[in-house]
Structures are given as C-alpha cells and as structure tokens.
Amino acid sequence: MIDEKEGPAKVLLRKATIVFWDFDGVIKDSVAVKTVGFEQLFLPYGKELAERVRRHHEAHGGVSRYEKIPIYLEWAGETVSAARVQDFCEGFARLVQQAVIDAPWVAGVREYLLAQHSRQCFVLVTATPQEEIQQILQALNIAHCFNRVFGAPASKTGSVRELLRELKCPPEWAVLVGDSEMDLKAAQENGVPFLLRCTVHNQTLQERYSGPRFEDLSP
Questions:
Q1: CA 131 to mean position of chain CA atoms
Q2: Are 117 and 177 in a shared domain?
Q3: Domain residues for 138?
Q4: Structural domains of the chain, count
Q5: Same domain as 112, residue 40
Q6: Sign of the CA dihedral 182, 90, 51, 199?
Q7: What's the pLDDT at 1?
Q8: Which of 183, 209, 216, 217 lies deepest, with the highest CB count within 10 Å?
Q9: Whole-number pLDDT of residue 2
C-alpha cells in the first residue's frame, strides 16, 4: 500500500517497478571516504597536487576511478600506462574498501532495502569496480537485496539501458536514486525518473535540479 501522504520522493520510490540505486552517498554516506582516499593516494606528490585531486574528485562524483586516476597520474608527471593505472586503482581500493563498509548508512535505506526487495526489483549501478562492490555488499549483508549489480567498468547509462531492455520495462516504471551529475545523466538519457539524495557534497546539483529529493528514508 502506497501512502500518498509520504511525500513525492517516497511515493515515487515506492511506485517504481525497478529501482536503480547508486551506492556512495545514497546507500552509505561514504563520499567523504573516497575523497580522503584520493588525497592520501596522491599526497606523496605534494599537498598542492593532493588538493587539486580532491577538488576534481568532488566536482566529478559518480565517475569511475579508472577515468580519474589517469588524469591524476598525468598531473603527477607519471607515465600513464594500463599497469600503472591498475596499481593505483588497487592502492585506492586498499585505502577505502573497509572504510566504505564502516561508513554510516543513509538513514532508513538499509531498512527499505531489506523490507522491499521482494516487492520491487532493485538494481545497483555504481562507479565502484564490480568485484569490489560485490565484496562490500556481501560484508554488509545486503547482496541478496539486488537482482543485478553493475559496477565499473560498466557505465551507468549503458547499464540502465541494458536492464530496461532485458526486462522490457518502460522507463517511466523505473526510478534512479542518485546523488551526482552522472546519476542524473544516466536517468535522463534513458528517460527514467530521477530521485536526488541531497548531501553536503552536491549543493550545485541541488540548485540546478528541481525534481523529487530526499535526505534520508527515515519513517
């Protein structure tokens, strides 16, 4: 039963047949963890570069580390090779994976996932690498809540398109819950309604986006 008094965000969420979830900033309040991880990874190249990396990362939420790290390596004067990028990606994972697991839940989201996953189709679309996000979901005991999990290198836009086509689901029957420009883009390019999770990190997006939004899913 959908209670129309819950507000537009929760009504939109509950009505959807398919819910596409981002992870960092939507399920776990882990955006700051990733910021610290990038800073630490490039701090050996100096505080000025680490600060530049931090600013770029914060301005490009939802973008895979596989796209960001080559840029940062170039700034650091390092050779940008596939092997070097992989080394830095693995180093980043070692810095942040447990911290993401330990990060606070977005209030009400875990409870919603556990209560509604048998009623709705939940799909995770994240810039975190596939194997890493699978390990995180297992550690958090919520892997069973998701019918499908799409991690990097799969794109969010492509993953949403693939799933809608596979399940023959009209875009308007779905919703994408996200907190970044990349999430909004993935929703818009597929004609899927977007639900914005508001954080201290996406003030600019909040000013531009006038659609449904929420801070938490507490009753």
A1: 15
A2: yes
A3: 4-29+105-214
A4: 2
A5: no
A6: positive
A7: 40
A8: 183
A9: 42
